[in-house]
Amino acid sequence: MTSEASSQEGGSMCEEQTISLVDVLEEDEELEEEASAVLAGSDSDHCSYPLGYVKRQALYACNTCTPKGGEAAGVCLACSYKCHEGHELFELYTKRNFRCDCGNRKFSDLQCKLQPDKDDVNSLNKYSHNFFGVYCTCRRPYPDPDDQVEDEMIQCVVCEDWLHSRHLGCMVPDCVELQEMICEACMKTSPVLWEYAAHLAAAGPEEPKGEGPGAEAIPEKTENKEESVTKPSCKRSREEGEPCCRLKELQAGGQKRVQSGAVFWPSGWRSKLCSCAPCQLMLSEAGLSFLLDETDTVLEYENKGKSREREQPGTDPLMSALDNLSRVQQLEIIHGYNDMKTELKDFLQRFAAEGKVGQKPDFVSSLFLFFLSVFSSSSFKQVRSWLHSLVYSQGRQPFFF
Ligand SMILES: [Zn+2]
Ligand SMILES: [Zn+2]
Ligand SMILES: [Zn+2]
Ligand SMILES: [Zn+2]
Ligand SMILES: [Zn+2]
Ligand SMILES: [Zn+2]
């Protein structure tokens, strides 16, 4: 509605639709906060290698330096900018416990410009087909030029692969509270997860009529495991006056679940997992210790980035505009935005000093276009003059101021 008014040559601005540039600058802060959420703890200037295996960071794979057929390698955010500029990069979003490989033995020619002194390999890094630019059980690139189906991709919190929602083997719940997904393959490697799923997760598929081989066979296995591992501990911890094993308590509830398809978990589900010593050992042996760490989640990572700049959550005009872009494009734009933020603020402050008012939605869209132009032309001066001409276009009727 407000965009209509703005197209009327500025003359008919009504007061409810206008905001002061103080508001604009506040909005700028909100945009900044959203930008932080995407890049969060990842440093765009310094190679993360000295930090070791970083708990979670934005990660890239370079198809130019380490193409398919060779060894997989991953590089940090800063290296993606400084050492692999102009290369074909795969945006891996964030991954846990990874140490930057840039310039190590896996790179035959390239030397890291930021941290050239690296061990030959990072033996604890885990690699997947994602590092060669393919995702999901169908092993397709993203975006996929041959895929006409509009489908979202969801990251498994265990293997951290991205899966098409149509390849999850389950219905994707509408509920936004269901924030974490574990893919079927990961579920099947850890029977204890099915135990938890029966009690904590979103409803699974319907019990198949007539036969349910999966549902029959696997619970038996988990019960065996529980007998041997969980039960003794329960006694021990009682003797020590500690609460009994929570897994054991859940199992006493006796709920079962069809063991197929991916599983969606409600927010806070990790806090409901039992962390008694035997359960910790069991999760550790399954390589799932991180599930006991609520700060391991991507959400936590993003929130950390947001709170780093400000405490209160803002609206997301930039993010919604960015939704239509790939992750690589998003990060490029946001990164560039951070770089020239100060420049932009100075520019806006000058208008603020003149007490001009503008229309918020137009400002947001103008600002977005502004970002786009910044990254298609690297000259700030050019962008400034572009912005000036935007402001004073249409016979000096301000477009958004
Ligand atoms: Zn690096
Ligand atoms: Zn490269
Ligand atoms: Zn590097
Ligand atoms: Zn797929
Ligand atoms: Zn998985
Ligand atoms: Zn336990």
UniProtKB/TrEMBL annotation:
Superkingdom, taxonomy of origin: Eukaryota
UniProt entry keywords in alphabetical sequence: Isopeptide bond, Metal-binding, Phosphoprotein, Transferase, Ubl conjugation, Ubl conjugation pathway, Zinc, Zinc-finger
GO cellular component, one term: cytoplasm
Basic and acidic residues composition-biased segments: 218-229
Zn finger region (UBR-type): 45-117
Record pathway: Protein modification; protein ubiquitination
EC number(s) from the headed UniProt entry: 2.3.2.27
Function summary: E3 ubiquitin-protein ligase which is a component of the N-end rule pathway. Recognizes and binds to proteins bearing specific N-terminal residues that are destabilizing according to the N-end rule, leading to their ubiquitination and subsequent degradation.
Protein's UniProt name: Putative E3 ubiquitin-protein ligase UBR7
